[in-house]
Amino acid sequence: MSNQTISITDSIYKYLCDNSLREDKNLSSLRAHTYRMEQRNMQISPEQGQFMQLLIKIMNAKNTIEVGVFTGYSSLCVALALPHDGKIIACDISTKYTDIAEKYWEDANVRNKIDLRIGPAIDTLKTLIDKGMSNTFDFSFIDADKINYDNYYEMCLQLLRPGGLIAIDNVLWSGDVADIRINDIDTESIRSLNKKLHKDSRVDISLLPIGDGLTLALKK
Ligand code: SAM
Ligand code: CA
Predict the structure, then answer these.
(1) Which residues approach ligand 1 with their CB closer than 6 A?
(2) What's the CATH architecture for 52-219?
(3) 4 Cα: distance to centroid of ligand 1 (angstroms)
(4) Whose alpha carbon is nearest atom 18 of ligand 1?
(5) Where are the chain's structural domains?
(6) Which of 166, 200, 151 is nearest to 52 (CA)?
């Protein structure tokens, strides 16, 4: 036992999954589909998806934003956890990926909850702000191009109501953020947002070592 977060070995990870995952069959099929793709590592892990579903339910979230859809696993998790009149504004630039997402959303009967916006996420978020939707969203998941993470954070913070939650993915970036020899643009972008969030008094935060690192930021 230790007072530090446990290191997850393969056998501990298997135990965790075997004893806690309750993955919906549509989520399992989508995960199997994505696993056959070269870009499969872009998908969030199933235990992270289940954790996000719990967050949605704890908060009674209804209006949500997703920045970075890919083949739709995280959006399907959120959509399944939302009430029947819940909504996701889902942003991506690639229909190549979201065409796959749409099929699985349809199979899971949640297509009506997801408003897919194809185009640079910055433009979509700006449109929402310009339409007067600031302070109206309950939850936002940020998981697109890392170089724009700070822009996504600032725009989502504006769009969230006080008490709304932003979840930011890949904040540990396979551990690269902790290695000072690594200074590529993606690592630097995540590192600088992590640093900013640490001191940002507009939010309460927790950096969780789930998946590739997930920061939760609760708007005050
Ligand atoms: N959340 C997804 C999941 O659980 O499967 C994974 C998202 S993947 C890591 C990142 C996605 O961001 C890709 O589908 C990519 O097309 C999209 N993306 C990259 N740049 C973008 C941009 N400027 N605006 C919107 N989406 C972008
Ligand atoms: Ca991710």
Answers:
(1) 42-44, 68-71, 73-74, 91-94, 97, 120-121, 143-145
(2) 3-Layer(aba) Sandwich (3.40)
(3) 32
(4) 144
(5) 52-219
(6) 166
pLDDT over 90 percentage in the chain: 99
Quick one: how far is CA 37 from the chain centroid?
20
Q: Taking 90 as the threshold, does the pLDDT of residue 94 lie above it?
A: yes
Compute the distance between CA of residue 102 and CA of residue 22 in angstroms, rounded to an integer: 22
Q: What is the pLDDT of residue 98?
A: 98
Give 1's pLDDT tier (boundaries 50, 70, 90). confident
Indicate the pTM of the whole model: 0.98
Half-sphere exposure of 119 (CA within 13 A, CB side): 9
Q: Which of 42, 64, 117, 118 to mutate to test ligand 1, by most ligand atoms within 8 A of the CB atom? A: 42
The token pair that represents 215 in the structure block: 């920061």
